[in-house]
Write a structure and sequence with these properties.
With about 850 residues, this protein is an alpha+beta fold. The chain contains 27 helices and 36 strands. The structure holds one RNA strand of 86 nucleotides.
RNA sequence: GCCCGCGUGGUGGAAUGGUAGACACAGAAGACUUAAAAUCUUUAGGCCGAAAGGCCGUGCCGGUUCGAAUCCGGCCGCGGGCACCA
């Protein structure tokens, strides 16, 4: 007898797979293709359990599809540009490039022992010049196609470090390093015209049936289509050129309740006024001390300042409304100016209360009388209300109806026009940072802004840079900055902004189809492999990454880099949950929290201590993070139990879309189970039991059911249920008194069913039982439908909705017969005690409900 | 603040309009063992009961239905996103 020793067997099978080259993706015209992709990782240097879970899910699908006869593409790469590399350079010295490539090497080494069926020959990093050079080529094509432009936009400016900050680098309105109050500052930046595609990106969501409903809903809300009225207020007392203020409203039905006009602090009128009015200048400056995030803006106290300008109501030019500058009006949405109707908008209500503005009701709830409001009355647009202003007599209508009438009325009278607006803004891709893809553009004194000549690509990042001072090293690098204009040959200046890393991740899926090509893609490869059949990643990417990718695929199609079928690049999407763990905390002498690694904790049922007996506070589970030290190193688990145990555990118990709790005991239990399966297989090879018709038939039937259920569960991404079924099947097989031949067949099937989750163990068992070749190349088993049905079924009987008895009857018993059996049932008779029966509801194969 | 989810035994979860708690973890009892580990067997939502059985129970409140963890309305709690984190 030998033992289950994954440390011996796992490397052996990994070498066997490599030698057979079975994970190398090949265009095979004789097979249907299947492209499975997990969101590629940022090379932080260490893999974590979240990665293990993410890649194991993809691997289960990849191996299952390969066994099911598909030609599978399952690649891996690195989302390698971004701030952490620059931060590391600033903190520890060194170069972002060295840091990144060394992290990639480390992470690759940590991933290989997991035994993932990845085609490593296609690996690339987005910081490879071969990759970002092609991205630059596409940028130039997209520029020519009119998809890119420049405009002014706000950034977070750290006035002490003299540098632009990312939103996450702004903490409570201050720069994370300098502590200085952050200001909003305007810079000229590069934009993709994603808003040209607002309507299409929204409409196309309807066809993404294999995407989670919630992701589609989140994207739809993000795009934010609205129908409204755009019109202008005439003004009095405004500076020259501002005799009209354009506003946009989705509730033109409330125009009769308008009590003020408010403009954004970034509105041209506000900018004009701040030049000559110190009070306004101070207020606007104060507004700009909020960082650029919408969250900060929304949470800030709502403030305004009266400009002294008056707006004339379009229906009555004797009706004057004060014009405020208000900190909650976004310049990016609509026209950057609104009118406020306090009676029917909570924010306007609070604003009006604060500044003592009139609150005039336009409509009231049915069956009520006009009375002073304590909060805004905001019914659904579809709800019928009583309009008390704007009509000769009160009229009962829905908001929707009156909105449409109001738009029509304003259009007829030349007051304004109905417009469809989107919340989605153009995609600003300029970053004032070094470690990103350089924007391939040159600034020439005579020619202006000129795209680089494609022959000069890639525009590589210079290696000789330092990070000892804040700001963008490219800006300081005079020899890199100086270049010649591709148009006129004069001396020119290179663009020093680099691209948002979301650009890098918006097309890597396409690059994987031809990763070494000297063009961004190759038509034959893209035609064969696209689209991604199954995309897997975190829900945190539900909006930005996925929306940008959907846009970029369209832009790539427009510029000839992807076929028309690929404008929606991801056929199916699955969003997995996080891996969580308890947090262990003690407190140091100064009262500061000290966190401890799980491996340093002795965990009892009710409490936890350190090795020296110190009590440790146990904080409920949260996402694994370095700062809280609630991390488990996958390598340690692999060393102790093997990769299959880690893979099995992350797939068991929790449904994949939900967070899963990592527990040491759970990991151990997974190992125990795998060892048990191994032992049962081993026993089968050492015994020789005779056939037994009844027991053999029962096991054969159980095997067919296991095949059926595990297959369906994998198809539905219900890996936890597939595993539960495999536990059950293990118990059945272990307790079975069937003959050795039948048991051997059952165990071989078990190996196949387990192979997507625990590929090494499956190969081991497959070999033990004399299977041909590699189980990784064996065709997926199928179940004989005749074995899946039962002759007899047990049905519960309810009396008035409460379960009181059950009966076991032949599966094909007709309803009328079932009723007779139920009424004759001893427990039913006893329970009814003569009460007459009104109805019997028989749900075939499910339940019987007797009503009295 | 706005948008989107989630909430079931001591724990992870199963059941997505039809027997609530499959499967597993931790627990308890037993077998084997000099002992421990490993393994195997049994047990297990709560309350009442010797048992048969009964009552209660899916975050909270209300509704629809013969029947609700599941559908609807309102609330509470937790998580994700909010355009320069990736």
């Amino acid at each position: 007898m030998s033992r289950y020793e994954p440390s011996q067997t796992e490397p052996k099978w990994q070498a066997a797979w490599d030698a057979a080259g079975i994970f190398t993706a090949r265009r095979d015209p004789t097979k249907p293709k299947y492209y499975v992709l997990e969101m590629f990782p940022y090379p932080s240097g260490r893999i974590h359990m979240g990665h293990v879970r993410n890649y194991t899910m993809g691997d289960v699908i990849a191996r299952y599809k390969a066994a099911s006869g598909f030609s599978v593409l399952h690649p891996m790469g690195w989302d390698a540009f971004g701030m952490p590399a620059e931060n590391a350079a600033m903190e520890r010295g060194g170069h972002p490039k060295d840091w990144t490539y060394s992290n990639i090497a480390d992470m690759r080494n940590q991933m290989k022992p997991l035994g993932l069926s990845i085609d490593w020959s296609r690996e690339f990093a987005t910081c490879d010049p071969e990759y970002y050079g092609q991205q630059q080529a596409m940028f130039i094509d997209m520029m020519e196609a009119g998809l890119i432009y420049r405009k002014n936009a706000m950034v977070n400016w750290d006035p002490v470090d003299m540098t632009v900050l990312a939103n996450e680098q702004v903490i409570d309105g201050r720069g994370w390093r300098s502590g200085a109050l952050v200001e909003r500052r305007e810079l000229t930046q590069w934009f993709f015209r994603i808003s040209n595609y607002s309507s299409e990106l929204l409409k196309a969501l309807d066809a993404l049936n294999d995407w989670p409903h919630k992701v589609r809903l989140m994207q739809a809300n993000w795009i934010g289509k609205s129908r409204g009225l755009q019109f202008a207020f005439s003004t009095t007392g405004a500076p020259e050129g501002f005799d009209r203020i354009e506003v946009y409203t989705t509730r033109p039905d409330t125009l009769h309740g308008a009590s003020f006009v408010a403009i954004s602090p970034d509105h041209p009128l506000a900018k004009q006024l701040e030049r000559h009015n110190p009070a306004i200048a101070e207020f606007v400056a104060e507004c700009r001390r909020i960082d650029t995030s919408e969250e900060a803006l929304e949470k800030a106290e709502k403030n305004g300042i009266d400009t002294g300008i008056r707006a004339l109501h379009p229906f009555d030019d004797t009706w004057e409304l004060p014009v405020y500058i208000a900190n909650f009006i976004l310049m990016d949405y609509g026209t950057g100016a609104i009118f406020g109707c306090p009676a029917h908008d909570q924010r306007d209500f609070e604003f009006a209360t604060k500044y003592n503005l009139p609150i005039k009701q336009v409509f009231i709830a049915l069956g009520t009388k006009e009375a002073p409001l304590s909060e805004a009355y905001v019914p659904m647009k579809s709800e019928r209300v009583c309009y008390i202003r704007g009509f000769p007599q009160p009229e009962i209508k829905t908001g929707q109806e009156v909105i449409e009438e109001a738009i029509a009325h304003c259009e007829e009278n030349g007051i304004g026009r109905g417009v469809t607006n989107y919340r989605l803004r153009d995609w600003g891709i300029s970053r004032q940072r070094y470690w990103g893809c350089p924007i391939p553009v040159v600034h020439c004194a005579t020619c202006g802004v000129v795209a680089e000549d494609k022959a000069n690509l890639p525009i590589c990042l210079p290696d000789d840079v330092t990070f000892d001072q804040p700001g963008n090293p490219l800006d300081r690098h005079s020899t890199w900055r100086n270049c010649t204009c591709p148009k006129c040959g004069a001396t020119a200046r290179r663009e020093t902004d680099t691209m948002d890393t979301f650009v890098d991740s918006s097309w890597y899926y396409a690059r994987f189809t031809a990763p070494r090509a000297t063009t961004p893609t190759i038509a034959e490869d893209a035609d064969y492999w696209m689209n991604v059949d199954q995309y897997i990643g975190g829900i945190e990417h539900a909006i930005l990454h996925l929306l940008y990718s959907r846009f970029f695929a369209r832009a790539m199609h427009k510029t000839g880099h992807l076929p028309a079928k690929s404008i929606e690049p991801f056929n199916a999407l699955f969003t997995q949950g996080m891996v969580t763990h308890e947090i262990y905390k003690t407190t140091d002498a100064n009262g500061r929290p000290v966190y401890h690694l799980p491996e340093d904790i002795i965990r009892n049922e009710s409490d936890a201590t350190l090795a020296d007996g110190t009590k440790v506070e146990v904080i409920p589970s949260a996402k694994m993070s370095k700062s809280k030290k609630n991390v488990v190193d996958p390598l340690k688990i692999i060393t102790e139990f093997g990769a299959d145990t880690a893979r099995w555990f992350v797939m068991s118990d929790s449904p994949p879309e939900r967070d899963m709790e990592w527990t040491a005991s759970g990991a151990k239990a997974a190992y125990k189970h795998l060892a048990r399966v191994w032992r049962i297989a081993d026993e089968i090879t050492h015994t020789n039991a005779n056939a037994n018709a009844t027991n053999d038939a029962a096991l054969t039937k159980a095997t067919a059911k296991a095949v059926d259920e595990v297959t369906r569960n994998i198809d539905n991404f219900a890996f936890n249920k597939a595993i539960a079924k495999l536990y059950e099947f293990t118990n059945t097989l272990s307790n079975s008194a069937a003959g050795t031949t039948t048991k051997r067949t059952a165990m071989q099937t078990m190996a196949q069913l387990m192979s997507p989750m625990t590929p090494h163990l499956a190969e081991e068992i497959w070999q033990m039982l004399g299977g041909t070749g590699l189980v990784a190349q064996a065709p997926w088993p199928s179940a004989d439908p005749a074995l899946l049905t039962d002759d007899e079924i047990t049905l519960p009987i309810q009396i008035n909705g409460k379960r009181r008895a059950e009966i076991t009857i032949p599966a094909n018993t007709p309803k009328s017969e079932v009723e007779k059996i139920v009424l004759a049932n001893e427990s039913v008779v006893k329970f009814l005690a003569g009460t007459p029966v009104k109805t019997i509801i028989v749900v075939s194969g499910r339940i019987i409900n007797v009503l009295t």
